[in-house]
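User: Can you predict the 3D structure for this chain?
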Amino acid sequence: MELLLVFVALVGLVVGSFLNVVIWRVPRGESVVSPPSHCPGCDRPVRPRDNIPVLSWLLLRGRCRDCGEPISPRYPLVEAGTAVVFVLLAAAIGIEPDLPAFLYLGAIGVALALIDIDVKRLPNVIVLPSYPVALALLGVAALVDSRWDDLLRAVLGMVALYALYFLLALVYPAGMGFGDVKLAGVLGLYLGWLGWAEVVTGGFLGFLFGGVVGGALMFAHRAGRKSMLPFGPFMLAGALVAILWGAALADLYLDTVLG
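Assistant: Here is the predicted structure, written as C-alpha cells:
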C-alpha cells in the first residue's frame, strides 16, 4: 500500500503540472498542447529542467530563469494539491479496478474547482466528456469485479443528482447555473457507485460547505446576499469528503439521531 501511495503521489505531481496548463488555457479557448509552456513575461519556452513539479519552482525561487518574472505560487500549490488528492483517493479506494476512475475524477475536480473560482464557469469541454470517460472506467471495473449492481446504482445516482440540481436551477436560476447541473450528474455517477449513503452525504455537504463559506463571507463583509459565489468547488469538496468518509458520516448521523 505504501508503494501505491508513493506512486500515485508522483503521478499526481505530474498531472498537477499539466492541470496548471488546463486551468489557464481552457477558459481562454486555447490549446492545452500547443504551444509548449512558456513564460508570459518574456515568452521564452520553459526548459525541461525548469518544469519539474514543485521542485523547479523552489529552485528558481519563484521566478523565470530568463527574465526574472515572478511565477505564481499557485503553480506548485496545484501540483502538490493534486498529489494530495490522489493519495487520499488511493488510500480510500485501495488497489482496486475502480481506482483509475476516481483518480480521473480527482484530476478534473482540481481543474474545475480552480477554473470556477477564476471565471465562475464550469467548461463543457471538461465536464461533458467526463460522462463517457467515467462510465467507461467504471464499466471496466464492473466487468473485472462483476459489480453490475454498483454500476446500475451509479447510473441511478447520476440521474438523481442531475435531476435535483436541474430542478433547483429551474426554481432559482439566479443561484444555480447549468454548469453545476452538468457537474452534479458526474458526481452522482461516482457517488452512486459507492452507495446511496455517499450520494446523500455528498449532495448535502456541497450545500453545507457553500452555506458556511457564504455566511462567513457575509459576516466578514466580503460578500452580500446578491453576491455570486462559484458553487462548483463546494460540490467537489462535498463529493471528495463523501468518497473518503461518506458511509461513516452517514452512520454517525443515524446513530446520533436514531441511536
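Residues 139 and 151 are 7 Å apart (CA to CA). The mean pLDDT is 92.
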